[in-house]
Amino acid sequence: MPKAKSPLRRLNETQSAYLLLLPFLLTYGLFLIYPFFRGVWISLHDWNLLQVAFNPDAKKFVGFENYVRVMWGRNIEWSPWARPVLQALGLLGIAAAVTLNRTRRLTGATGIALGLAGVALFLIAGVYAGEEGRWFDRRFWPTVGNTVLFVALTVPGVTISALLIAAALNRETRAMGLLRTLFFLSQVLSVTVVTLIWQIMFSPRQGLIANITELSGGSPITWLTDERFAMAAIVIATIWWSLGIAMILFLAGLQDISKDLFEAGALDNCTGIRAFWYITLPNLKRTITLVIILQIILHFQVFGQSHLMTQGGPNDETQVLVRYIYQTAFRDSELGRASAMAVFLFVIMGAFSIVQFLVGREEKD
Amino acid sequence: MKHLLTGTLLACACASAATAQDITLGRFFGACEDAGNDTKASVGEACIIQSIINAADAEIEGVSIETLPTDWGNYYDQIKAAYAGGTPPDVHVMHRHRVPEFAGFGALAALTEDDLSGAGIDPADWTDSARDAVTYNGEIYGIPMDLHANLWHVNMDLMAEAGLVENGEPVLPSSPEELLEHARQLKEATGQNYLAADFAQFPIGVRLVLALMWQQGENIFSEDGTATIDNDAAQAAVETITQLFAEDLSNPQLNYADSQQSFLNGEAAVLVNGTWVVDFYTAEAAKEETGLDNYYAADFPTLFGEGATWADSHIWVIPSPVKQDAEKYSAALKVLAFINEHNVDWARTGHMAVRNSVLESDEYAALPHRTEYAGTAEIARDTPPAENYGAIQDVLNRELQAIWLTDKPVGDALADANIEVQDLLDR
């Protein structure tokens, strides 16, 4: 007697695939897609957090006014030499992309990405408030600038130190295993704990760093309230905190490199730093790209370090985009305006995700 | 069967009426793990308020109170998010200056005289300023708990060393010039800084400048919403302080904890901070190991025409949605009544009481250092009401920090602050 098929067996492959995907798609839709579109929708309204909570009709559709009020100003002009250094850097990027692409040292997508970044820098840095003009929101662009600076300092910091540590710890001894765990430990801490540790470290009265400076005869630096050091302080704390994941990725990448390559290199007297430069680095290229792009996306969302260690100060030197969004939404109750900034942040991170997608696809070819 | 069902339902109803009414409570002041129930023994804001709450939980019949975990720095953000999500705590603390923002949107329950007297609260016993603190458009929206203000916390040993003590009282300056003189004199005699305060993070520096502007009869904005920061009075107020930084008689880079530590270590003769630390500093001064031995809590001195110091009030409120549940509302009122009843215990922190009967009591007069700053209630001031007070204070804090931490010219900073505050008032 033939057995009755169970209902699941009656599904073909595509149907069962969808069935298995369903829980993920539902969660994804509910917690990511829906909030995103709702955020965009809120950004088109004059929406006061408290007021709308007590009276849902208190919101007003204003179109793109929030975007204008956040990102634009009166008498805004463009000139090719508004910020000569940054704009020259942009032009340099374009030139580098073109020449490297011609000489075939840079492949298609990477070249295009570099070129586009150069064009964007050249154009954006040229915008300024003209005579009698002013930005409607005087804090927004400086805040974006601080965030970019934070990313520009943190990402190379994390990448280089994680790479060096991974290379040094890539040996199969018990001590190395212990050290790997130690270096990874900081990663599991929450941002509140990390910032607390580093606030104590940086304290000019009781901090470890101040004690060392005093021992060597210097006067202690007030890291968190000195405009020259505040950004450096949160960058250092962040590098210490997010080293772990990058290190693990590099270790995985290192173990993927065939031992044969090093043996062959050793025969030709290529060891130590030379082996690292000519064998390790080229073979880690994909991992390095992945780590850099993941870190860029991650660190654009910096919030806790700035919020808890410096409160964005002194004088807004460490004010970052997510903290500004948070303050606008929850302190000032201006949800529409905050959502407009959040959409801006999404666009930036989306751009980097696309770069990652392009680079990743290219390397598979 | 039907009877059995009704019977069970009735039994359930009785049982639920007999169980305690749960009240969630939101507060700042920081955490205190083992506050206990003794409202007379705890020390410091966090432990005193928690001991009052614990006592309320134990003593009010049929009410059990759960204190929600909230963080000082982000308190209002959390509270607002809770309101927006429809789950505010049943009672919570807030500042007087936030009433226009919250009551303006109908977030707070208006407490009628009947509600208050029914719960045993007598508004007639409140001081006028305390009653004003909880009143918005003629309605009472909460119960006041204190009047708190900036004081000059003084290290008498350092002052004596510099010859700045007369009849057991510190000699405080009466003009910006005299302030500079005293500071130089003290540095000369002791090698220590004259004044410390958090000029770097928490807006104590803002409150100092505000007081010095009020002392000249000026304010940062007018009732009709015009920013008035870019003027001679503000310039004079700021320069009163920067003259100390310029001669290294005060350090602008210390934050709250560090400035307090420098005072407790005996490295600064005066600390500008609120009434909330009087009992804490009294306790610290009694300890052998702290550099501060002889502590005095003085009124903020008058450096210009009229006396003024920054002040505010902590008040307790009930969110308007709680009113829909009569039993919960009545339980919440009982909690407020208990806090009102223990006004003298809260005053042990150093804050000024808000009930006339407490202010006149011997117990209140016997609190440490109380007579030394008896003039503060008279000179207590605040900015005009504004819905976005938090953002305005932030602008001032940023621009003032720019002056003392990043050497921004005073005129530029005041002009920028004026533009930004006007933007906020116009929004």
TrEMBL record, chain A:
The keyword Transmembrane applies. It comes from the Bacteria. Keywords: Cell membrane, Membrane, Sugar transport, Transmembrane, Transmembrane helix, Transport. One of its GO terms (cellular component) is plasma membrane. The chain crosses the membrane at residues 16-37, 81-100, 112-129, 149-169, 181-201, 229-252, 338-359. It is a multi-pass membrane protein. GO terms for biological process: transmembrane transport. Gene3D superfamilies: MetI-like. Residues 144-356 form the ABC transmembrane type-1 domain. The keyword Transport applies. Pfam families: BPD_transp_1. It is found in: Cell membrane. Belongs to the binding-protein-dependent transport system permease family. This is Multiple sugar transport system permease protein. It comes from Roseivivax lentus. The lineage of its organism: Bacteria, Pseudomonadati, Pseudomonadota, Alphaproteobacteria, Rhodobacterales.
Automatic annotation (TrEMBL), chain B:
The keyword ATP-binding does not apply. Residues 1-20 form the signal peptide. The keyword Plastid does not apply. Keywords: Signal. InterPro entries: Bact_solute-bd_prot1, SBP. Belongs to the bacterial solute-binding protein 1 family. This is Carbohydrate ABC transporter substrate-binding protein, CUT1 family. It comes from Roseivivax lentus.
